[in-house]
Structure prediction request, 257 residues.
Amino acid sequence: MSDFKIALRERETVNVLELKGYLDAHTAPKLEEAFQNLLKNARFNIVVNCRDLSYISSAGLGVFMAFIEDVRKNKGDIKLTNMTPKVYNVFDLLGFPLLYEILPDEQEAVRKFSERMK
Amino acid sequence: MSKRTLNIESRTERLIAVREFISVAAREFGFTDEEVSKIALAVDEACTNIIKHAYKYDPNYSISVTISTHNGAFEIAIRDTGRDFRPEAIPTPDMKEYLEHYRHGGLGVYLMRSLMDKVEYNIRPGKMNEVRLTKFLPR
Prediction:
């Protein structure tokens, strides 16, 4: 299925997940697997770039909820960036900006992680 | 009044077809892009709940999605023949508490209620479950 893709990049001490396409109950397991792999390798500084994410349902939001606690326990974070207004509206409707740092730009999220490391 | 129906197998890979079916009809009916997205998301959530809870991911069942439009009302009836449930037993989560305690799941019904003007259930145990989602065109 090509309706959802994830690309993984490393920037300094940060792992960037780039999401593309439609994140729903069908494709959410792919994102779950990507987070599981990062955690397994003790990679806890995670930026999720949502620039090309066209759609998210609660199944996708649930993936972020499933990992945030473990990531923070390990002194890391999941920061979300570059969301389209359509995707941001869904996060906002559920109050997710209270729990997650949502930034306009990936660069800024990477910089925040680097500052914390100093 | 006009009606159209899409029947799908109970598989998550069919959700994209449901969203497309709803989006085309909602746009034709006169909703803005933002409203079209909300309606498609609410219907996705209803179908996801059926696949997950009523059919427990068994793909050998079907879901019917019927759109009826009349007098500015856009109504979607989603029917299944899976396990019944008590809609009144589904709590509306307190999102602040939900997020603070890293809860999981249960957001679909909350989203449906937030995105649509009306959410109604018609549960006939052992026969059929129906959820009806309605959105009105702004006057």
Q: What stands out?
A: Chain A has one domain: 4-117.
